[in-house]
Design brief:
480 residues, alpha/beta, six-stranded parallel β-sheet, 18 helices, binds 5'-O-[(L-methionyl)-sulphamoyl]adenosine
Length: 480
């Protein structure tokens, strides 16, 4: 069965920022690593549209809600395209297939005896799209959104999540790889043990969303609806055969902010519906910008498109993944991005490719294809990078690849090919084999970076396998 991975589906109340790009680019690296579309990889991303946040954003934009979410979904779709992200499915929760899936899921859970009606009184934070408990609040406000939650009192449908508490706990216990990193796993065990309860899954006061099959006056709670995207994207409710082929997913990738929904509520929902659990859930850390939380109200969100237009898509992909262990929190700063760009890309890989192509043109008339290759260690490195990538150690994988870049540049400095070229008779052979070795190194690096920096990889592989290699224009012009 081919690899299946997902990102969260994003709210469309604002434009994508580098935090969203982080998850989506990491997922794209994995999808490409596993062979991409042509290998049958299933890579789902999309938009979470049945949310009150989106309704409020539509009001501010003075647009009707459907028009607003249509335009916003288009913007998100285009953003991923511009960042060279190639999902196989872009799911929208206002789509017809998703609605079919949600209705089927509701009815299945109901048939399991896990839906009941009750009165709910609680404080609701629109920012979180969740009820919040008193103990979560600071000065009566949500600590994340700094706003006072609204008080809601309604007759709601409830999901009997508590019934699955013990099953989920023992599943987590018996499957140490189910939730990672370990710190998140512990956080979830704690949460399930102490706070995981039945949850209200409908809203009477909200008019935007999927009506519940049992009362058209109520819409389905946006998280209950949104989590179902992971199965509606692959046929649940509209193509059973496809669904059986694709589910369960190998990996749900997400940020640490939404682990409770993914690691507690979602497994309970799947168990109730009699469906398999995803194989793995990985929660990465959060990016701040110059030390501050990214937030709409602070107005400090960084547009990934703007960054990619200024520095290039591959440099953005590289910076996001190379400098931070996946799972840790980090800070995004354009100053650091520029330093990394100049040192690792312009002076590192870019310089290597320019120098080697220049010397091959100058000393070998551009022709290396008849010279036998010398490097026997490639398969070992390839295997190492494969393992690192599959284990989501992206920064380590890039570090190892860049060691190859530095070693190759150092070899040039040590061997001084320009001096070898002066004494053709004695040192000619050494020069020929050295340049062949360097071209092979570049081809190896080109191959290894493919999932991470796809455009640069293609350029290198194309250029250095030509019949006649010419001097390559700088891949990454140095920033002043
Ligand atoms: N719509 C829900 C998810 C439903 S999934 C069934 C949602 N959407 S969101 O638009 O708020 O996106 C949250 C996700 O965006 C995070 O889990 C993470 O993947 C990504 N990030 C948002 N801000 C981020 C940072 N500052 N840093 C890193 N990732 C960030 O929650």
């Amino acid at each position: 069965m081919s690899y299946h991975l997902t990102t969260p589906i994003y709210y469309v109340n604002a434009a994508p920022h580098i935090g969203h790009a982080y998850t989506t680019i990491a997922a794209d690296v994995l999808a490409r690593h596993h062979g991409g579309i042509s290998s049958g990889v299933q890579f789902t991303t999309g938009t979470d549209e049945n949310s009150l946040k989106n309704v409020k954003a539509a009001e501010v934009a003075n647009k009707d809600i459907q028009t607003y979410v249509d335009e916003a979904a288009h913007l998100w779709f285009q953003t991923w395209k511009s960042l060279n992200v190639e999902p196989t499915t872009f799911i929208r929760t206002t789509g017809a297939n998703h609605r079919l899936a949600v209705i089927k899921f509701w009815n299945t859970v109901k048939n399991s005896g896990d839906i009941y009606q009750d009165i709910y009184v609680g404080k609701y934070c629109t920012g979180c799209e969740a009820y919040v408990s008193e103990s979560d609040l600071i000065d009566e406000c949500c600590p994340l959104h700094k706003t006072k939650p609204e008080i809601l009192r309604e007759k709601n449908f409830f999901f009997r999540a508590s019934r699955y508490k013990e099953t989920i706990l023992s599943y987590i216990e018996n499957n140490p790889d189910f939730i990672s990193p370990e710190s998140r796993r512990n956080e979830i065990i704690n949460y399930i043990k102490n706070h995981f309860e039945d949850i209200s899954i409908s809203r009477q006061s909200i008019k935007w969303g999927i009506p519940t099959p049992d009362d058209p006056e109520q819409v389905i709670y946006v998280w209950f609806d949104a989590l179902i995207n992971y199965i509606s994207a692959v046929g649940y409710g509209w193509d059973q055969q496809l669904f059986e082929e694709k589910w369960p997913a190998d990996l749900h990738l997400l940020g640490k902010d939404i682990i409770k929904f993914h690691c507690a509520l979602w497994p309970a929902m799947l168990l109730s519906a009699g469906l398999a659990l995803p194989k793995k859930i990985f929660a990465h850390g959060f990016f701040t910008v110059n030390g501050e939380k990214i937030s709409k109200s602070l107005g400090n969100s960084i547009d990934p498109i703007e960054i990619s237009q200024k520095y290039g898509v591959d440099p953005l992909r590289y910076y996001l993944l190379a400098k931070l262990p996946f799972g840790n929190n980090g800070d995004f700063s354009t100053i650091q991005l520029e330093e990394v760009y100049n040192s690792d890309l312009a002076n590192g890989l870019g310089n290597l490719a320019s120098r080697v192509s220049n010397m091959v043109e100058k000393y070998l008339f551009g022709i290396v294809k008849d010279i036998p290759s010398t490097d026997e260690h490639n398969s070992k490195i390839e295997k190492e990078i494969k393992i690192l990538t599959e284990n989501l150690h992206f920064h380590k994988a890039l570090e190892e690849i860049w060691k190859q870049v530095y070693l190759a540049n150092k070899l040039i400095e040590d061997k001084k090919p320009w001096q070898l070229a002066k004494n053709k008779e004695k040192q000619g052979l050494e020069l020929i084999f050295l340049l062949r070795y360097l071209v092979d190194k570049i081809l190896l690096i080109g191959k290894l970076i493919n999932p991470y920096l796809p455009t640069t990889s293609e350029k290198l592989l194309k250029h250095f396998t030509q019949e006649k290699i010419t001097k390559l224009e700088p891949l990454f012009p140095k920033l002043k």
